[in-house]
């Protein structure tokens, strides 16, 4: 009974935590609190105003707290002050850190933003081995010998041949009696996805803009990992020239230089063509910039690259424009004009951290 009660209490606590996260999701996302730790695919989040439980064992054998040498009002050795301060009367705020799996966070995000499940392209079904030995085979290693089935086959053979003696029931299996456990193959859904994050790291993109990109990329990544079993992620940074980098460099590279957006699109296209055939992979390019491009001619080249090359090989192209004091914001206007009515191009305007969730909903809300 006590075990069942503990399980009920644990389930109830998880429901409380889940409800608190959903209620304060916007605050958690905008502050970035949810991505402090990601060891073992768990993140640690602080939940304020949940009172910590206190347990007391036995009886207090002393007269009270603060026993020892010294008089009332005497300062602690090594501390300044006369020791006569007044006690506070305000209630303290308690915080409890709880671990939530990325799978749970993805479900909460999907429920809160009403995100549809993605209908992937590629192979619908693939022959794969099941995770349990549910089949029986006539051949296999002795370590997988099925004792009961082997005994049964030997018994049937001896009864059929008339060599079985009920008064001396000795069963001796021979090679033909041996049966082994085997893996069964079955049809399982198979879908693979590749994300290509591109970020403008020119001089007009400051630390706050990159923090916004970091938080949004985390949540997009979390949702797509919930949708796909096989997910590959690539990172591209660009100023006037584009480079593929690792995740740490992507989020910590200092800003400098001018902006040539087409360099990132060309590198993204080359990456997709080399590694991710459109028939088998679901490709999601995400580009984040403050909207400054070095010339109208390069913007026209970007539009041409998207129309003729990138869009045919990807599920959806997403552009997030992060507001910057130094960015003109013109690039989003140009994309909106060039791709008006095209569902495969989604653009968002991210004014500040409060704009992260609406941007994610726009990017992922069509289930492409």
Give a written overview of the molecule.
The structure is a single chain. The protein is built from ten helices and twelve strands. It has about 375 residues and is α/β, with parallel strands linked by helices. The chain has a six-stranded mixed β-sheet with strand order 9-8-7-10-11-12, sandwiched between helices. The chain has a two-stranded antiparallel sheet with strand order 1-2. Strands 3-6 form a two-stranded antiparallel sheet. The longest helix is centred in the first third of the chain and has 22 residues.
Topology:
Elements (H helix, E strand, L loop, with lengths): L1 H22 L1 H7 L10 E7 L46 E7 H12 L11 E5 L5 E3 L9 H15 L18 E3 L2 E5 L2 E9 L6 H21 L2 E9 L3 E4 L1 H6 L8 H15 L5 E9 L6 H15 L6 E6 L7 H9 L6 E6 L5 H9 L4
Parallel strand pairs: 7-8, 7-10, 10-11, 11-12
Antiparallel strand pairs: 1-2, 3-6, 4-5, 8-9
Helix pairs in contact: 3-5, 5-10, 7-8
């Amino acid at each position: 009974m006590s075990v069942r009660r503990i399980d009920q209490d644990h389930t109830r606590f998880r429901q409380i935590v889940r409800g608190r996260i959903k209620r304060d999701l916007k605050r958690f996302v905008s502050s970035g609190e949810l991505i402090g730790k990601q060891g073992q695919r768990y993140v640690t989040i602080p939940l304020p105003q949940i009172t910590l439980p206190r347990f007391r064992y036995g009886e207090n054998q002393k007269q009270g707290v603060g026993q020892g040498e010294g008089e009332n009002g005497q300062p602690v050795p090594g501390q300044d002050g006369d020791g006569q301060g007044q006690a506070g009367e305000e209630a303290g705020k308690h915080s409890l850190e709880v671990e939530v799996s990325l799978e749970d966070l993805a479900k909460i995000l999907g429920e809160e933003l009403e995100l549809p499940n993605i209908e992937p392209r590629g192979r619908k079904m693939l022959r794969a081995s099941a995770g349990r030995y549910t089949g029986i085979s006539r051949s296999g290693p002795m370590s997988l010998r099925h004792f009961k089935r082997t005994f049964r086959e030997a018994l049937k053979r001896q009864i059929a041949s008339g060599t079985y003696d009920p008064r001396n029931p000795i069963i001796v299996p021979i090679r033909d009696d041996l049966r082994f456990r085997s893996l069964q193959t079955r049809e399982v859904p198979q879908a693979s996805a590749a994300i290509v994050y591109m970020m403008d790291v020119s001089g007009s993109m400051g630390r706050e803009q990159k923090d916004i990109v970091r938080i949004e990329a985390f949540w997009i990544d979390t949702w797509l990992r919930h949708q796909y079993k096989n997910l590959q992620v690539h990172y591209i940074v660009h100023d006037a020239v584009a480079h593929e980098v690792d995740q740490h460099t992507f989020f910590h590279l200092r800003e400098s230089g001018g902006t040539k957006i087409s360099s990132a699109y060309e590198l993204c296209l080359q990456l997709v063509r080399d590694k991710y055939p459109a028939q088998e992979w679901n490709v999601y390019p995400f580009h984040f910039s403050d909207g400054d491009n070095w010339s109208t001619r390069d913007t026209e080249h970007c539009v041409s690259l998207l129309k003729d090359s990138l869009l045919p090989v990807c599920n959806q192209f997403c552009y997030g424009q992060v507001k910057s004091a130094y960015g003109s914001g013109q690039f989003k206007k140009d994309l909106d004009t060039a791709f008006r009515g095209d569902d495969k191009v989604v653009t968002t305007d991210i004014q500040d951290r409060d704009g992260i969730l609406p941007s994610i909903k726009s990017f992922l809300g069509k289930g492409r």
